[in-house]
Amino acid sequence: MKNIRLSTPVIIAEDEPLMREVLASALRAFGYHSIAFAVDGRQAAQLLELPEYRSALVFLDIHMPKMDGMAVLEHARSVGSNAFMVMVSADSSLDRVLAALSGGAKGFVIKPYTTQKILDITTKFERALIG
Fold it and tell me: Are 92 and 62 in contact (CB under 8 A)?
């Protein structure tokens, strides 16, 4: 697991600086250190087009400027990305969660982040990689 964590690129697409740092701190504590940040949806979409992020672990806020998370999720699929996309939002309505999951997200984390929620997602991601 340690090698997976050290070699896996992570994208945090979050427009709120405090939420970005909370999530990054938790991921670093779990051994993930190759973390890229996107402050809006357009930056996230651009990162997902780069070869080094095609298989990244991605935490994608739904409500962001320039391009919302659902549009980024769709864009990722259209460019052939096989990133492990996890939607994050304070908006946890059933419709929102189901739309994200049916759109290809592998998980949904409700803000505010907790260490346990992040650990659950990283464990799910690592299991998916191992098969």
Answer: no
